[in-house]
Design brief:
heterodimer, A: alpha+beta, two-stranded antiparallel sheet, 6 helices, 28% helix, B: Glutaredoxin, 7-stranded mixed beta sheet, 22% strand
């Protein structure tokens, strides 16, 4: 009888361990001031008032750490369609998995396209986080749910953005752990989101991203009004420069549920 | 030794051919206006196709997208390319269901043998196609979308040949791609 109890306990322990191994942390629902969106104009009793924009996010789960080289190797073993020599030219560019063979197991996988990142998450029964989910989770510091206006937090992010670019990427989990238990939301790599192509940035030289009635239907969505949050603006500008097949040395991903 | 080099070159060429960007790699199923399930690439006939993404609730740019495509088709015809089909895939997954698209097609008097409206099964599928075509769009939540306007020319195997990314662009780029592709097809 004792033996059976022990066995049951053992199984229970193992199952909790494996839940931990899938590495998801819970992010509770809420709203976040979208400092990257321009204030909305609202007409109340013939008076136009500008209000701040917020995003609403439902409960979701996010991988505590970015997907590693080792995890992606395991994925490639089972999904040979995504190997460099077999993958579709619609889904990747020439840089796909560049340097992958020599990368450390515990480093985040980079040089992965949006399509590849998405396929990885699907293979795990997961998905890519939406842009709002990612920004919501990334706004948290070690102690605050919304640190987007916290000077120290912002300073740290900007320092990372300003760091000289070296090709040696640190290991996952090595930067910081935020309030939700998610590591390295800033400071390690840039990360793919499901709807990265919702971002329109004004004033870019790229032909297809300037605001023009011939090119866009509906109102504009982004005008970085808040100069304070240059950091968020940088992320949005970066995303708007991406294509689905882009593979970049410091762009990786994590999955959500 | 030399043989090996040629072999290596051949392999490189072959892999590049197999990696040509074709929409056949997008496996998602879409619905036609008659509720028939099919992939985007199977909607591409034996001929050339122009593909764009739209939403029919749009008051401004989408009718313009259609006019622009009609204009391109005329330019194509002037160059002797008559059998070019059109696919209009909607990213308004919630509202643009097959019946609504059918009504829209009839209202706009768009030939059902040439114009193919497609309705996505999920936001996931619409997002995938938009990214593959390099189109940006965002649901503004009030029935409107902000989106970029790209029109892409596909070959008979649903391969991406060329695209224009704004409605003011001339048809020249597409016509050149069309000519280049037919010239190549003749050589083969």
């Amino acid at each position: 009888m004792k033996k059976l109890e022990r066995l049951v306990l053992c199984i229970v322990l193992l199952s909790t361990l494996s839940a931990g191994a899938s590495g998801l942390v819970s992010v509770s629902k809420g709203r976040l001031e979208a400092i990257w969106l321009s204030p909305m104009s609202v007409k109340i009793k013939n008076q136009t008032k500008t209000t701040r924009s917020f995003i609403q996010v439902k409960d979701f789960k996010l991988m505590a750490k970015a997907v590693t080289v080792k995890q992606f190797k395991e994925f490639l073993e089972k999904n040979s369609d995504w190997r460099k020599d077999k993958v579709s030219g619609l889904f990747t560019d020439a840089n796909y998995l560049h340097g992958f063979e020599n990368a450390r197991d515990n480093s985040p996988v980079t040089n992965v396209s949006w399509f590849a990142a998405r396929a990885y998450c699907k293979s795990q029964g997961l998905r890519l986080p939406t842009l709002n989910e990612w920004e919501y989770a990334a706004a948290a510091s070690e102690t605050l749910r919304d640190a987007n206006k916290n000077e120290l937090f912002l300073k740290r992010i900007l320092e990372w953005y300003g760091e000289p670019q070296t090709e040696q990427i640190k290991e996952v989990g090595s930067i910081y752990k935020n309030l939700y238990g998610a590591y390295d939301m800033h400071g390690l790599i840039w990360e793919w989101v499901e709807d990265f192509n919702t971002t329109f940035v004004t004033g870019e030289s790229r032909e297809d991203s300037s605001f023009n009635k011939d090119m866009f239907c509906g109102a504009g969505s982004l005008a970085s009004n808040d100069k304070e949050n240059y950091a968020a603006f940088m992320r949005f500008a970066f995303r708007s420069s991406l294509k689905g097949k882009s593979s970049i040395w410091n762009l990786g991903f994590r999955c959500a549920q | 030794m030399k043989k090996n080099i040629y072999l290596a070159l051949l392999i490189i060429i072959l892999t590049q051919l197999s990696q040509a960007a074709s929409l056949t790699d997008i496996k998602s199923k879409w619905l036609t206006v008659d509720n028939k399930e099919q992939s985007v690439s199977s909607t591409v006939g034996q001929s050339y196709t122009l593909i764009a993404m739209v939403y029919t609730g749009c008051a401004h740019a989408c009718p313009m997208t259609i006019s622009k495509i009609q204009r391109i088709l005329k330019d194509f015809e002037a160059q002797g390319f008559k059998n070019v089909n059109v696919i209009l895939a909607s990213f308004d997954v919630k509202n643009d269901r097959p019946a609504k698209l059918k009504k829209y097609q009839l209202e706009r008097k768009l030939d059902v043998n040439k114009w193919n409206f497609l309705s996505a099964a999920s936001d996931d599928d619409a997002r995938e196609l938009s990214v593959a075509l390099g189109i940006s769009y965002k649901d503004l939540g009030d029935g409107d979308f902000s989106h970029s306007n790209a029109i892409t020319l596909l070959g008979p195997r649903a391969e991406i040949l060329a695209s224009i990314d704004n409605l003011n662009a001339s048809s020249d780029k597409l016509i050149e791609a069309l000519k280049a592709h037919t010239a190549k097809a003749k050589v083969q």
